[in-house]
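quick one, 522 residues, struct below
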Amino acid sequence: MKAATAICICIGLSLSACSSDLPAHTHDYADISGAVPASALPEGVTMGVQACSGSDKVSGVDATGEIVCSADEGTAYAAGHGIQLAGDSFSVDTAVIQSRIVTSCSPGSCIRSVAEDGTAECEQAGAGPGMDPIKFVHRYATGGSGSQADPWQGAVEAAIASASNGDLLVFDGGFYFLSSSVVADGNSPEIVLYAPNRDAIILVDTGASTDPAFRLRATSGAAADRVRKWVFDGLSFRGMPDGGGAIDADMPYLMQIRNCEFSGFATSMVVRIRNGYSAIMKDCYFLGNASSTGYLVQLDECNSMVVSGVHILGGFGGIKVYSTGAQTHGVFIAKSRFEDIVHNGIYLDGCLGCGIEQCYVEYQDSDTGTFTSLIQLGSGAHPVDALSMSGVMLSGHASIQSEDIYGINLKNVRNAAIHGIYLYNLNAGLWSDGIPEAPSVQLSGLVFLEGPATADDSYMVMSSNVRDASAQLDSGGLKLPSFSNGNRPAPGVRGRVIYNASSGNLNIDTGAGWILPDGSGA
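---
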């Protein structure tokens, strides 16, 4: 128990009037209840409670300590801007202050507008100004197979037929079943086929017909009848049994095929562009297409075509650029992979001013015993002129035994610069059997490694018309192209000199046969 303490309490007095002469109240801390006992108050000071009557409110205290009461003035309240008042309850006016946004747009789209209740209208991202209202194509939501009916084909045809410039057809996921081609004739409007979620799968089954899923064709050969701008973006084309290809475009002014997948097609041609003025195929994937003939991508008589970031895995042939003359030009194939190709990975059959850059081509060992080139340039009828090729890797398989697998076949080349080529596990790096009499073909930076386990390891076959920049002084001597006795090119180019690896002698081409430097037969 602590000692008692004297407490001085001054009520209604100035500080100077409060002194130790006032009666002191002492009490143990443990017994203090919070009230001042009446015995502790000075004479004339009393304790009491005052209150105003009725609805009066306390407005002050007079000199004697009495409270002053006044009538309630009745304060009124009003709702301000964006606030509603009902009775004694305030709330937010959503017509002025928007409600919280409750709508979530799917990936690839964005909010276009928001209603008062917080619901939002979504719009395809990147549509840009000038695009007409989005057309959502009905989807075949229950999946699809070749035996089921086609409930939406007519809707797609109607949407394309009624489309105007800049229309956007959005595939919102699920399966889209095509039992026949969607046909768009010449002078068609600008159309974008788009899948915002990258999960729109178009099942293609045109029956016994070889028609593609989308046929974009010109009504005549006039430029005014060209198919105009078409964009295929983010779609997955899946081939069904006996189905045709995916896209066949004739005379498009502008065409883009990007971020698309093509798989499961048994047809010989999945994508073909004919007489195209300007087209781009970018970041596309071809997988598991079991074609036994033809090329998965074919560009016929085209101009200004770019193929970039394309991956072809499996198939008879990869990409073919075809022209009956010199009309196909400006075709550029870059940063693409061609793997497990049975025949030619890249075939330029008539091309003017074309290029191949930073590509990888690999041959599948099918043991067919047939001639195959990973890249073939020109044919007997159609030349390749003004070609540039660089940064290309060509690879065979170490198990190749009986097959003639060549890296680059210079079948008919007139002017070309080929440099920075890496050749691996091939029977032959280069083969030339159709170079004109006076070409300008330059080879440089060629690397040959690890030929297959055959009697004749990786070698190079060239015409004397080819200027090989890699043929240079090597450790003090001139390194010439080397061939075994049985694999020498056919004679016919007077003055050509090679090294015969079988006999260890130089061989000179007389135009009619091979001879040794002393003039005797080789």
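The CA atoms of residues 423 and 448 lie 5 Å apart.
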